[in-house]
Write a structure and sequence with these properties.
77% helix
């Protein structure tokens, strides 16, 4: 038996995750975790790298949502393709 919250998140018509989608998802997750770490450790970054430490956090602030946009568009295309019967 699955938890009701887990059932709400499941997508029955979702396409199987291909190798490319899996890599994109893992990269997106790593970018998000790195961004959280950079924000939490901004003082340490600034102490280690000086003003360039802020550039690291700024680059992650840009990279995470941009890559997320590409990942979610690819995932939606795969789901829609499966829905149309074209496969993943």
């Amino acid at each position: 038996m699955k938890h009701p919250l887990l059932i709400a998140v499941l997508t029955p018509g979702a396409a199987p995750e291909t190798r490319g989608l899996r890599i994109m998802r893992l990269v997106w997750m790593a970018l998000c975790a790195s961004l959280a770490g950079a924000v939490l450790g901004l003082q340490a970054l600034l102490a280690l790298l000086g003003p360039k430490g802020a550039l690291v956090a700024a680059a992650l602030c840009l990279a995470a949502p941009i890559h997320g946009l590409f990942y979610f568009r690819a995932k939606i295309r795969a789901d829609e393709s499966l829905e149309r019967g074209e496969g993943a």
